[in-house]
């Protein structure tokens, strides 16, 4: 049976660090390309990946969706630093037998992907950084106004999701609602929802990573793998300026900016971005 994001079973893997990780692994395992490890955004779990995006990538290679420590169905405590999150993801990758792999990091997951590439560069082949920012970047150390209210809502609704991930245009919001419909199509064997402790720990990690310090951009020179940097042109969570900073400081970067789109550009343009990802990962 060929699984998709809507049918792939939730799996559990006990790692030597004492954490049992929840994950989904599906796609074309026979492809010559290495698997792609997907790292999720703030408060997101396995179910928050849009099937239209991940299934299109899985059609050409194997994908591995991960709940990091303490997130969703994974045990343990959520780390409060990006470095610790990267160490946890590496513990999973080792336990899963991932030798060489590609990384797909979205938002907070993009912070973690950068740190993994710095810690274990010999295992990472190519990297996709979506809606994310470099350490010490601009405009995301302290959320304010409606963004802060939406991020900190105890039980987010569709309205908070649209505020954070899409622009105010009718087209963008319509695509956002379509993505939400796809995300909630799966009714059986869903992942455990993230809790408020996850939000608090992840917010600490984001704040620490986002302390403005442009001297930290020098670290990016050590990420020599090819990197696809992508974002919407109006990201209110990790402002789009940060994608330009990444592309300007990574030695081998390709930059794609999607029009009339925000943080959730990858869900607004799932077919187009999946095509771009597949072409890039090759």
Automatic annotation (TrEMBL):
Pfam families, sorted: Abhydrolase_1
Domain AB hydrolase-1, chain residue ranges per copy: 34-264
GO MF, one annotated term: catalytic activity
PANTHER family in UniProt: AB HYDROLASE-1 DOMAIN-CONTAINING PROTEIN (PTHR43433:SF5), HYDROLASE, ALPHA/BETA FOLD FAMILY PROTEIN (PTHR43433)
Name assigned to this protein: Pimeloyl-ACP methyl ester carboxylesterase
